[in-house]
C-alpha cells in the first residue's frame, strides 16, 4: 500500500471513530431528555451561616442566630445555601 493510500485509510478510520462516538453521545443526550426529574428533598439549609434544620418558626431561633441574621441583613449579604436531592426516573 502506498503511503498516500495508508494516510487516507487512517483518516477514514479516524473519521468513522469520531462519528460513531458522536452518534453515541447524541443518543445518550436524547435518552437523557426522556428521564423525569423531580426534587426529592432539601437538606442542610443555612441562611447567613445559621442552620435552618431545627428552625420551624421564629421561636426556634436562638439569640445568637438572631444576632447573626441581623448582622447579615445590615451588611446586605445574606447567603442561602442548601443541598437539593434530585430523583430521576427513566421511563
Amino acid at each position: 500500500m502506498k503511503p498516500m493510500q495508508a494516510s487516507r485509510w487512517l483518516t477514514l478510520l479516524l473519521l468513522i471513530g469520531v462519528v460513531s462516538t458522536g452518534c453515541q453521545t447524541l443518543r445518550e443526550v436524547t435518552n437523557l431528555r426522556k428521564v423525569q426529574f423531580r426534587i426529592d428533598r432539601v437538606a442542610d439549609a443555612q441562611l447567613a451561616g445559621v442552620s435552618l434544620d431545627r428552625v420551624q418558626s421564629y421561636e426556634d431561633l436562638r439569640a445568637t442566630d438572631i444576632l447573626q441574621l441581623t448582622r447579615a441583613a445590615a451588611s446586605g449579604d445574606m447567603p442561602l445555601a442548601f443541598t437539593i436531592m434530585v430523583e430521576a426516573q427513566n421511563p
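The two ends are 51 Å apart (CA to CA). DSSP finds two helices and three strands in the chain.
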